[in-house]
Design brief:
The structure is a single chain. The chain is of the alpha+beta class. It is 21% helix and 31% strand. This is Transmembrane protein.
Length: 86
Amino acid sequence: MKRSLILLGTALALSACTTASVEPIPGSITYNGQPRTKLTKSPVGSTFEHRFYGDGGEYVETYQIQPDRSLKLIWRRFLPDIIDDN
């Protein structure tokens, strides 16, 4: 019984992680809406990375091309700059 509750809790936590949307921030490709140009040669469902700097580090975002050729921000990672003051 205890094991099944742990598995259920883990499954719920993982499903919450995959369904949460990532909001654009300044520097994101879709920050001010969709870009004017469309990626017409890339297959629907394909992904690509976008990297930019801000807030003392590097952001790495992953976008997915939707059936209407719009971009969906699906993942973001922040890599802080490590500065040694010694």
